[in-house]
Amino acid sequence: MAQRILTGYRPTGKLHLGHLHGNLKRMIELQEQATCFFFIADWHALTTDYQDPSRLRAYTEDMVVDWLAAGLDADKAAIYRQSDLPEVAEFQLYLSMVTPLGWLERVPSFKEQQEQLKGREIATHGFLGYPVLQAADILIVRADGVPVGEDQLPHLELTREIVRRFNYLYGETFAEPQSLLSPSPRIPGTDGRKMSKSYGNHISLGDTPEDIHKKVGIMVTDPARRTRRDPGDPEKCSVYELHKIYTVDRLEEIGEKCRTAGWGCVECKRVLAERVADSLRDFRARRKELEKTPGIAWKVLEDGLRKVKPVAGEVLAEVRRRMGID
Ligand code: SF4
Asked: Do 134 and 266 reside in the same domain of the chain?
């Protein structure tokens, strides 16, 4: 079992169901078992969104409050903002000296993201180098476990390669961090694609029951069900994918009713929306409570910084020494 865990989120504002089932539930468990470092990756956000940073502060605040409402505990984990820890930037500079360009160019997400974000000018030094920044995030706290999804495995492998090279050049300094791969279900958005704020297809954790009913109401379903009388195939339906998480106790019945046209999609969606809204009732109440304390997010980030700063300072001092900069 890993002893030190690190994970970070780009500040994209309020959290949604994709975050909750993707990583957040895991973070809530891990904070009980290990020393955890959870950070807001605002420098990472700038690698793709540097042209419009106007919402960065607001998004950071929203995300921290959502984290707390979801169950992250600032007394148990160090919750901090990446840009408050300049040690990371200096460390990234040192790591960038030892990282061959070819390693960065072959990271699969480099080309994929360039494709996906075609409208933005991201052929930048910062964007190419963001896996090195990730390595600095991980190693600055000597994390030995990093919760990741399948798509992030190549990044962590790159961190391990950087560790091996650093250790080879300057002597044994870092252990190779391990991935904590969690089997997280695919969460479809309202349009059937993976739920993501950038697609505008998300259901936020803070959405009201009315919002949730509206959003579930427009979810794409099995196209074979053109009318109420057409039987459907639940395995081709995004609504059913969410029923698999929220309505497990009625799954067989729901599948049967779909296949036999025993009910319409409107009814099926209503059941789902009620379950989702119920599951988020406590979250909404806790968020409301937290909102009564203005500035609570910044206070939490300040406290978290106090915890991470000495750890980062010790690591950076050793790196400087090893690289002849002390
Ligand atoms: S009945 Fe339910 S599972 Fe079947 S297509 Fe409609 S929404 Fe999807």
From this structure: no
